[in-house]
Write a structure and sequence with these properties.
Blueprint (H helix, E strand, L loop, with lengths): L2 H6 L7 E2 L2 E2 L1 E2 L10 H14 L9 H20 L8 E4 L2 H16 L5 E5 L8 H10 L2 E5 L9 H7 L4 E7 L11 H10 L3 E5 L11 H4 L3 E5 L10 E5 L1 H6 L10 E4 L4 E3 L13 H17 L1 H21 L3 E3 L9 E6 L4 H10 L2 E2 L1 E3 L4 H7 L4 E5 L6 H17 L2
Helix pairs in contact: 2-10, 3-10, 4-5, 11-14
Bound molecules: ligand C6P.
Ligand C6P binds next to helix 4.
Length: 404
């Protein structure tokens, strides 16, 4: 597919910021939405808006059909065995909290260990800390090297029969590192531990086959995959979900309620209490069909080209220190300049029309590791161009001059 055709799918890109064409390089925070996703959400509200699984009228039947069709799209996209294993949530954060609360509450106790890595997003740290506080279990951390790669020798050493769960990010949002999750899952399973993979960043950039990975829990968010905000998914093995207590109680997750006892609904509904984000789920389905229409082969090739192009410029830019130089890395360029604070950079770049993110990226332990308060982060997507990378570095040049 031609880059201009892809860009034309995203109406938001066609605008100016402070008199400059918008250069959107904050895709790791959230991607822009193609017209087909906007249309799917709009069609639901214009033609089908109704509650699901409840009504006997035509609108409700149509809304239910489209909602469940999205579940099937997601099942197919990630090669999940059964749609009973696809639970809609508010996003990665809620998916991880669901597992920590429900599975963790039922399976983790004092003396057990939860193993996470040094490069986790707060969403894959704090829920486990909370679980450990409640249960007396211990949180252990897989260290990383200066390159932003995990220390696999230390990982093997840390794994033991005490390890109940390994929580690992597939692709780091702060560094871009892609972790070798397949072998990490195999090693964890060998000691009897379950594995949760945080796929928030990876899912739009790397083809993910849930059955081939044999992963126990996989969490991701629609909004980083060209879909709406406030919706995501927890994919989990059916036997684990069956054995887990519900996360929240309410409508839709029940079969029968009396004051004495409640009989829970079958999967996946047992974990979807209350009216869900129906439009969001339908938009999520449209977003995944959009990704499929481009194909991961083209996406990976294109994003790799952009990363190489940007990295080459970063390497020759005086005073720039890259944060995260893993060999296996996806479309994230995290860096600091010796003379300009990342937050100032973010503001100056915005005046040039270039949108990046500056801050700790909800990965404070990564900042502590590199002893920086924050980084500037440019993150690329399928609609970005080499000219936009040039615009980034031209704007960085201006910022450097201003602070010289
Ligand atoms: N990272 C970023 O700019 P939610 O907010 O639930 O959709 O996703 C949370 C999350 C979990 N794990 C990883 C690896 C993530 O990158 C994120 C979101 C955004 O990097 C916002 S902090």
């Amino acid at each position: 597919m031609h880059i201009e055709d892809i860009r034309n799918d995203f109406p938001i890109l066609d605008q100016e910021i402070f008199g400059h064409p918008l250069v959107y390089l904050d895709n790791a925070a959230t991607t822009q939405k193609p017209q087909c996703v906007i249309d799917a959400v709009r069609k639901y509200y214009e033609k089908d808006n109704s509650n699901i699984h409840r009504g006997v009228h035509s609108l409700s039947e149509r809304a239910t059909r489209d909602y469940e069709a999205a579940r099937e799209t997601i099942r197919h996209f990630f090669n999940v065995k059964s749609s009973r294993e696809v639970i809609f949530t508010r996003g990665t954060t809620e998916s991880i909290n669901l597992v920590a609360s429900s599975w963790g509450g039922a399976n983790v106790s004092e003396g057990d260990e939860i193993l996470i890595s040094h490069m986790e997003h707060h969403s894959n740290i704090v829920p486990w800390q909370m679980l450990c506080e409640r249960t007396g279990a211990k949180l252990k951390v897989i260290p990383m090297h200066e390159s932003g790669e995990l220390d696999m020798v230390a990982y093997a050493d840390l794994l033991s029969t005490r390890t109940k769960l390994v929580g690992i990010v597939h692709m780091s949002n702060a560094l871009g590192t892609i972790n070798p999750i397949k072998s990490m899952i195999e090693q964890a399973h060998a000691v009897g531990a379950k594995v949760l993979v945080d796929g928030a960043q990876a899912a739009a950039h790397i083809a993910t086959d849930i059955q081939a990975l044999d992963v126990d829990f996989y969490a991701t968010s629609a909004h980083k995959m060209y879909g709406p905000t406030g919706v995501g998914v927890l994919i989990a093995k059916e036997e684990l979900l069956e054995a887990m207590p519900p996360y929240q109680g309410g409508g839709d997750m029940i079969l029968m309620v009396t004051f004495e006892k409640t009989q829970y609904n079958a999967l996946p509904h047992k974990f979807e209490a209350g009216t869900p984000n129906i439009a969001g789920v339908i938009g999520f389905g449209a977003a995944l069909r959009y990704i499929e229409s481009i194909g991961f082969a083209s996406i990976v090739k294109r994003e790799k080209e952009l990363l190489i192009y940007a990295t080459q410029q970063a390497e020759t830019f005086t005073g720039l220190r890259q944060i995260g130089t893993a060999k296996d890395k996806a479309c994230v360029l995290s860096f600091v300049l010796d003379t300009v604070h990342p937050h100032d950079l973010g503001t100056i770049l915005d005046r040039e029309g270039v949108a990046i993110r500056a801050g700790h990226h909800c990965a404070m332990p990564v900042m502590q590791f590199y002893q920086v308060p924050a980084t500037a982060r440019a993150s690329f997507s399928i609609y970005n161009t080499e000219q936009e990378v040039d615009a980034l570095f031209a704007a960085l040049g201006k910022a450097r001059q201003m602070f010289a």
